[in-house]
């Protein structure tokens, strides 16, 4: 079966629930063991006191460890990412912070791509540094050889524990080279005595348009609030990868208690049924919107993956992306005043942060999602005061374009 067919049924059998075609919501905190011996075995496995038989599944114990709704969803997410396992969380930030805390200890080095999602930026700079993790950012133009050279000069090359990358970068849509960073991981692994983890935040293009595991990623993180759910009605997160890597993250999730609730899992499982329909429509719409925007006199730049003037960016796009996605940033002439005039004149497209949902959303990164980034850093990244970030939804493309056309006329 193709993934888009299998995702409708994987992990659930109607016989478990009175023939119900769809899974019910298992609103239960705890689960009955058939006998005491079974309870003992489940705990031995859950606490890693014995190794699980290859065919043996961890039985249900308590909903902080697992729950049928979480389990169905995790099987479907692993299917979509074409990997072995998934762990789900009550938010994208819970997924990302749990992954980082699973592996990072005082004195370890974290390499991360810059720019990066604001919440991740804050967690790295304010929390991880406060517990003694050494953090170093990677710029878009840096190659693995250059990064290695700098790390060796600083005496940090044998201390790197994690490479954390987000691509395309928000809000400029700049692409990081996943294959080159995979090579960096391999070189670092030869110098380090501990395992080096390569983690990719795939919220913008995954799981359909970018497959980081093909380029050597160990774990793929998501804000499932965005495309995966796509209806702006829940906050959710997920991590996918090989069983050994995901199990380590689930181990800490159990004790931080950052797991997903049965209700959130049920809503997200339902949303995944239309993931391909939604994302494909959003991608088609985005391309039409891009074509419209690039011809408008009020606009100085349109940032859309694969359409860069830079040859290296176009090569990375060709090698690692299966589609451009549905996020477009564009710069209007006239700075904040002009950008605000456009945002305030939109009639159908909503003025709100977040992205990937079925309705189109627009916002002003300079003063909203990236308000916390210092102004000179924003200007270096090309994150200017005239920039508007647009998340293209599933509406009729003519309506999205017409709304943008009339809003652009509000610039005086
Ligand atoms: C939204 C987002 C996050 C954070 O996810 P939440 O679900 O809001 O906690 C992380 N990374 C990226 C790229 C995002 O867009």
Structural class: alpha/beta
Strand content: 5-15%
Number of domains: 2
Ions, cofactors and other ligands present here are: pyridoxal-5'-phosphate
Low-confidence stretches: none
Proper CATH architecture of the largest domain: 3-Layer(aba) Sandwich
**Helix content estimate:** 25-40%
How many helices in DSSP terms?
Answer: 14
Give the CATH class of the largest domain: Alpha Beta
Distance between the termini: 55 Å
Using the CA coordinates, give the radius of gyration.
22 Å
Output the strand order for the largest sheet.
1-7-6-5-4-2-3
Which outline best applies? globular
By CATH, the topology of the largest domain is Aspartate Aminotransferase, domain 2
Largest sheet, strands/sense/barrel: 7 strands, mixed
> Total number of β-strand segments?
12
What quaternary form is this?
Answer: single chain
The CATH H-level homologous superfamily of the largest domain: Type I PLP-dependent aspartate aminotransferase-like (Major domain)
Protein traits:
five-stranded mixed β-sheet; Aspartate Aminotransferase, domain 1; single chain; Aspartate Aminotransferase, domain 2; 12 strands; binds pyridoxal-5'-phosphate; 412 residues; 2 domains; alpha/beta; seven-stranded mixed β-sheet
